[in-house]
Design brief:
InterPro entries: Homeodomain-like_sf (IPR009057), Winged_HTH_dom (IPR025959). Among the domains are: 61 residues, no CATH class; 53 residues, no CATH class. It is 51% helix and 0% strand.
Amino acid sequence: MRGDFTAAAVRRLAHGSRDAGQVRRLLSLAAIYGGGSRSAAALVGGVGLQTVRDWVLRFNRDGPDGLIDGKAPGGRPRLDASQRAALAAAVERGPIPAAHGVVRWRLVDLVQWVQDEFAVSISPQTLGRELRAMGYRKLSARPRHHAQEAETIPAFKKTSPPKWQRSGRRSRAAHP
């Protein structure tokens, strides 16, 4: 354990912290600084001996800040920067019907394109998230029937109701 801390100093740090996990770890280490065994520290923290050992190593290496939970790094991205740039160029360019077999890109088509182009297997959901992060949004035009006649559309459009007007009836008080 580091020699620049005491049990009281570690307890003060625990008292001033807002991170519950860090407080629990600091109190466990304060038990060790106070002369207790690592088994007692494990009971204070509610963990096993190996975990207390890991906390001690993190505390010795990084100090009290080493006991704060960091953000998990997550998985490795499926596409690198050059592949994302090529995907963006393909989306901007649009599909070539003769080459790609489609007239507009769908996610499943882009998944197949990525598989063919880069030999990377990616799900449609993940590719959709990637495209959304790149600033693309799913847009689709309103469907139009192939036999629609443009001149008949105005006849079926709903219009706003006319302004309210007083009816031609007179009130009873006006009639004797």
